[in-house]
Design brief:
The protein is an alpha/beta fold and 593 residues long. It is built from 20 helices and 13 strands. Among the domains are: 84 residues, Gyrase A, domain 2 (2-Layer Sandwich); 95 residues, no CATH class. The protein binds arginine.
């Protein structure tokens, strides 16, 4: 389906042509002066040079032709040469009816879906999930759903950090605490216990303790590195312990991601590509690009157009150990082999930009990733505290995601209790469940409404407010719509899905219709830029439009039932659009709050 702007542009283009001008001048945009008009066309200004004619004269001639078309209720030529346009109410509502009939509100789906892998989440096993990984999960999930909504085939891969020093630290610390365990007995050749020799909370205490010790004690660190080495070189006991850590950790991660409405199709990690590294090194060697530098093996990635420093990409350390880039390259080998995607999108902290620049360049230069596959890095900024520094607990420690979510939920619940009116005490209303739902929306919306690359400040009061550009405001608006629809249904016995949209009767109503008509173009644009914040901006405006309509319109008191059912159709369509949008953003709306 064409977008509303494409349709209007067609009309204007035809009018330019009929007046003897180039039809390409007829491009229509949404007005940047909504107080004066709804849409505008500045083609006459551009045409002035080409036709050596006053732009105003051109605009006047085109305006005359345009009056004959069925799309505009008012066409005004204004000096120096603008065309100010207002759309006909019928034209708008009939466009919306067409959108409503199509599967995705008139969004065009691709002829053939792209295969896309999204690498996001990226938690490190055995370290508690903290707010640093929050943004990757929230933005990555939204980008995944956005690509899917736009008709693509998308696989989300969590890419666990499950093979590094943190594992060696835990194994070494355990060997000091429980040396009697069979995992540490080289002579042991029986079966290891099925039960882990530690609980999750022990595990969570072990890692920070071990990490702190290794920073102070060289010998301790060397032993942890040795445990890492043994793990990566097939030591049975280390591997069995590693498996226990993985099982406990993954279960806990899943629980946390579930709460956030985040899920992954693939739970691969760095460990899964370890076995591919020797062949990767051979392959890189065969290209002749791999060379030795100060004992390490590296590949040059500098390009002439670089404006910032671009050091060679380190592939192997001088002791032969692999690095972060090595596992990422091996992961690319695996992804090309298994999935052969058209695009791979990484959603990672923007401070890792250089790493990904290097990895992408090596992958392309060496042919690991063919020309046709796009590698895309979405780097996000930091969530800061009010002091402008990275968000911390009151004690200055790293805030666990679980604690953060719990705090938001408590705040949300309190606010909801204060807001509560008598009818909310009905059966079937679970305030706890609702608070959970709204708090996820509060947190995710706060994150997603910012451009990903920007840092943002965590502000509990603002995020949980029912007013302003917040998740709760959006949900509150949706709940309001749901409750009107329900009342109408109860009172009339009608089905909102069969109510028929009418031409708008007020500027407020028209405003909502114009916004709904812009949904398909907005979504296509959000996908183009992989920018969930555009969806947030859109629903915020839609919510404002709806609320101003609501304040000026007595929907339920309307005597003319035909008019009333037209409004119900408008509300129903708005709700559908809101729902599609928040589903892409990755949260849900309750029926009441
Ligand atoms: N585990 C990494 C970290 O915590 C993030 C992984 C990002 N993805 C990747 N393919 N490198 O920094």
């Amino acid at each position: 389906m064409k977008t509303i702007l494409e349709l209007l542009t067609e009309k204007t283009a035809a009018a330019f042509e009929a007046a003897g001008y180039d039809s390409a001048l007829g491009r229509v945009t949404v007005s940047n002066r909504p107080d004066l008009c709804e849409y505008q066309c500045n083609g006459a200004m551009a045409g002035a040079k080409q036709y050596k004619k006053a732009p105003f004269a051109i605009a006047q001639e085109v305006a005359e032709k345009l009056l004959e078309c069925d799309a505009f209720s008012s066409v005004e030529a204004l000096p120096p040469g603008f065309l100010n346009l207002k759309i006909k109410e019928d034209f708008l509502s009939s466009y919306l009816l067409d959108c409503a009939k199509s599967e995705k509100m008139g969004l065009n789906l691709p002829d053939s879906a792209l295969k896309i892998i999204i690498d996001y989440g990226g938690p490190n096993v055995a370290k508690p999930l903290h707010v640093g990984h929050l943004r990757s999960a929230v933005i990555g999930e939204a980008v995944k759903r956005l690509c899917r909504f736009c008709g693509h085939e998308v696989i989300g891969d969590i890419h666990l950090g499950d093979w590094g020093l943190q594992m060696g630290l835990i194994i070494h610390e355990l060997s000091l605490r429980k040396p009697e365990l069979p995992y540490f007995d080289p002579a042991f050749d029986g079966e290891y216990p099925a039960e882990a020799p530690f609980t999750l909370s022990e595990l969570e205490e072990i890692y920070p303790a071990a990490s702190a010790k290794s920073k102070e004690d060289e010998e301790y660190k060397a032993a942890a590195m040795n445990a890492t080495y043994r793990l990566q070189h097939g030591d049975r006991g280390c591997l069995a312990l590693w498996q226990h850590i993985m099982n406990l950790s993954k279960t806990d991660l899943k629980k946390n991601y579930d709460k956030l409405n985040v899920s992954f199709e693939l739970w691969n990690g760095e460990s899964d590509v370890d076995s591919l590294i020797p062949a990767l090194i051979e392959r890189l060697d065969a290209t002749g690009l791999l060379y030795e530098s100060e004992g390490a093996k590296v590949i040059d990635v500098k390009e002439e157009s670089d404006t910032k420093e671009m050091p060679p990409c380190m592939i192997l350390k001088s002791d032969g150990a692999s690095l972060y880039a090595t596992t990422d390259l091996a992961t690319l080998v695996m992804r090309m082999d298994e999935t052969d995607p058209d695009r791979i999108i990484y959603v990672v902290d923007k401070r890792q930009q250089m790493h990904f620049d290097q990895v992408f360049r090596v992958a392309k230069k060496t042919g690991i990733v063919p020309e046709k596959t796009e590698l895309k890095f979405i780097g996000f900024g930091t969530m800061n505290g009010k002091d402008g520094k990275a968000f911390k607990t009151r004690e200055g420690g790293v805030m666990r995601l679980e604690t953060l979510l719990g705090d938001i939920k408590d705040t949300m619940r309190k606010k909801m209790e204060e807001n509560k009116n008598a009818s909310d005490k009905d059966a079937g209303y679970d305030i706890d469940e609702t608070a959970q739902m709204v708090s996820v929306a509060a947190l995710k919306y706060a994150d997603l409404s910012n451009q990903a690359t920007k840092d943002y400040v965590f502000d509990m009061d603002r995020f949980t407010s029912f007013e302003g550009n917040t998740g709760p405001y959006i949900l509150y608006t949706m709940v309001r719509i749901k409750s009107i629809l329900k009342r109408w249904q109860d009172e009339t016995g009608g089905d909102p899905a069969s109510a028929i949209l009418k031409g708008a009767r007020s500027p407020q109503e028209k405003d909502i219709q114009m916004r709904l008509a812009g949904f398909n173009a907005m979504m296509a644009g959000a996908y183009e830029e992989l920018a969930p914040h555009r969806i947030c901006a859109y629903i915020y405006e839609l919510a404002d439009s709806f609320n101003s309509f609501y304040h000026d319109t007595k929907i339920m008191a309307e005597d003319n039932k035909d008019v009333q059912s037209g409004w119900i159709a408008l509300l129903y369509l708005s709700l559908k659009v809101f729902e599609s949008c928040i589903d892409v953003l990755g949260f849900e709306a309750p029926d009441r709050m």
